[in-house]
Amino acid sequence: MSDYNFAYLDEDTKRMIRRAILKGIAVPGYQVPFASREMPMPYGWGTGGVQITAATLVPQDVLKVIDQGADDTTNAVSIRKFFQKTAGVEVTERTTEATVIQTRHRIPETPLTGDQILVYQVPIPEPMRFLEPRETETRRIHALADYGLMQVRLYEDIARHGEIATSYAYPVEVAGRYVMDPSPIPKFDNPKLDDCPAIQLFGAGREQRIYALPPHTGVRSLDFDDHPFTASKADHACAICGSGTSYLDEVITDDDGGRMFVCSDTDYCARRAEGVQ
Amino acid sequence: MYVAVKGGERAIDAAHDWLGRAHRGPAEQPALDTAQIRDQMALAVGRVMAEGSLYDPDLAALAIKQARGDLIEAIFLIRAYRTTLPRLGASDPVDTGAMRVKRRVSATFKDIPGGQVLGPTFDYTHRLLDFRLMANGELPASPASGAEGKPLHAPHVLGFLDRDGLIEDAPDSGETPPDLTREPMELPADRALRLQALARADEGFLLGLAYSTQRGYARNHAFVGELRIGAVTVEMDIPELGFSIEIGEVELTECETVNQFKGSKTEPAQFTRGYGLTFGQTERKAISMALVDRALRWQELGEEDQGAPAQDPEFVLSHCDNIQATGFLEHIKLPHYVDFQAELELVRRLRAGTEDAS
């Protein structure tokens, strides 16, 4: 596909995005505005992540794309094909082989290394958005670290339900400063954000924001001393690989509502089923 | 293996094949020619160019064909193409006063220099289906009046009010307007940036907002001072030459509204302005844009904040782009198994807690 530049975006656009990424890495958890481009896939399909991946990829990279933890969900397939076509990079389903992993809604079960970049697709980057719809106001909140509103919300959850009733996109505090939306990963994945050796980049295309976690950044899920954060998952083992510690999808298997639970991370599950750890 | 988890690739390929067949329709019918779309569906082409922010009737026609007539999808195709184009430079501001008008009406003055020109409008047609068009018959060609396309000296109507000081000044600040396709939108946005966003905003969204101002949600009673449609010359300054040369022509719709303003402590009573400018023959959009532009100016004019949606720049600008809106809306079709699973467990746990308590 010679009509387009390597990885689709022109070099000026990549430079603009790389600057935003570098700024994001310099100020962990801070949402950097960037001039997001219209991409050839719709907003909401991961245009922020795609732009970061496009600006990050070099020809030697090995790319893995997952959606819901799986490599062959439709949108993961579509994005992987896009980069195969426009960048010609090698692709893989193996977490350990990948140098760049673009993800939607999950962090792989296999621990990441310092040679990897994890790119998240982010729908709403602003953790305070559903408490305060105005951008002008939320920027002020972050500038002043005025996060009382969030604490009150979490407290109200406990008062009403006995626990914090947020199961995904669970807010975190980054390096003791910015409150950040980790994208809609299940809160089960939140502990993997902390002290991660890989670079973690977050892209929100429609909302024109990039933010980042440099390697080994301290990331704390918001909680209270008497109601500590707990990562939760379905209380089952995987029906395929038998893992008792991985995040599970619940699959309805018949008309009578029969269920089975399988790993959401298909690569992890397949490796285990093959007996490779 | 669970079917929905596996086979994404095969499913996508099969869906694309199906789309290809559905797109073409029955093979015994002739395929649509993009030139036919460009010339016979010119108003759709205008909308796609306006909201796609790219003036190219041929590409807009291609996009409409490829999108199977879904105009928002066509606009998306144009936007995605546009964003790959290099930015060579900026044209000089176009002179809409020198527009070669094919339609030009004023609702504020009965007669105006240059005259009222109805042009090719639906305004006074009776909306009766013309079955002759369906029978594949050609309508009898009406003789051209001879006035069509004739250059017309038509100065801006609002200029006459301006001369008498009855309407607010609209001086050229000389500042280069920001470019929202190259810089992230920053709020609060100045009027130039707001107008830029409105010019590519969804016609239906702006229509609804403009209508809401007419019905009392921040009413700013608007007269259409002038609505004009026609071709303007685009000129560009070429640094190597040291002067501007004509590089082409675009069709524009321009709407200037005259709105009431009671005056304030510092300003005498005078009329105020709303402004709309769009590519192609897109007058519903241009009028809507002018009304919304005027409603958004409440602060600058010292008016009251009525809390109306059309007065709220952050609300309007964050939601007026149909490509952003449709993308985010439709993305909820994508898999959300993981998050839903997390919610399922939470609801089960909360329910278990209530049952224990009762």
Automatic annotation (TrEMBL), chain A:
EC identifiers of the protein: 4.7.1.1
Alphabetical UniProt keywords: 4Fe-4S, Iron, Iron-sulfur, Lyase, Metal-binding, S-adenosyl-L-methionine
Pfam families: PhnJ
Enzyme class, UniProt record, top EC level: lyase
Catalytic activity, as annotated: alpha-D-ribose 1-methylphosphonate 5-phosphate + AH2 + S-adenosyl-L-methionine = alpha-D-ribose 1,2-cyclic phosphate 5-phosphate + methane + 5'-deoxyadenosine + L-methionine + A + H(+)
Single Gene Ontology BP annotation: organic phosphonate catabolic process
MF (Gene Ontology): 4 iron, 4 sulfur cluster binding; alpha-D-ribose 1-methylphosphonate 5-phosphate C-P-lyase activity; metal ion binding
Keyword Hydrolase carried by entry: no
Functional description taken from the UniProt entry: Catalyzes the breakage of the C-P bond in alpha-D-ribose 1-methylphosphonate 5-phosphate (PRPn) forming alpha-D-ribose.
Homology family: Belongs to the PhnJ family.
Protein name stated in the entry: Alpha-D-ribose 1-methylphosphonate 5-phosphate C-P lyase
Organism: Paracoccus halophilus
From TrEMBL, chain B:
An example Gene Ontology molecular-function term: lyase activity
Keywords (A to Z) from UniProt: Lyase
Any Pfam family: PhnI
A biological process from GO: organic phosphonate metabolic process
Entry superkingdom: Bacteria
InterPro entries: PhnI (IPR008773)
Protein name: Alpha-D-ribose 1-methylphosphonate 5-triphosphate synthase subunit PhnI
